[in-house]
Amino acid sequence: MGHFLEKAKITVQSWVTMDKVTQHKKIVRELVEYIAALCPTDEVIENQLITDDEHGHYLLCAVGWEENDYREYATFLHIDVKTNGRVWIQRDGTDLKVALLLVERGIPKSEIVIGFRAPFRRQLMGEYAIE
Known about the structure:
By secondary structure, the protein is of the alpha+beta class. The chain has a single domain, classed as TATA-Binding Protein (2-Layer Sandwich), CATH 3.30.310. It is 37% helix and 29% strand. It has three helices and five strands; from the N terminus they run αββββαβα. It has a five-stranded mixed sheet, with helices on one face. The chain is globular, with a radius of gyration of 18 Å.
């Protein structure tokens, strides 16, 4: 009977993790779409929203040419949702404090990794996850 209970426990944990992953992907997608709406494309620079719900990748990029001699190609927001439910902010080139916006939308600080900071610096960031 113990083997059955252990297997059931693992199944329930997997289900809870998948539910958390799905919820975090939904929150991240909605936030990135909201931020994308704040950054309209103009005639020179195209802002691109790139989402991959299957793999958990969400990016905002700017591409184009300024004055025909300066190539603009930059990712100014990149967030990943890992299979364990952790939300990794790989790049935050906005002035919006994306980590706090994720917390406001229901993702606990303990599930958010400030990935653009070195691991030794993450240890000093209080309640946020290190990895």
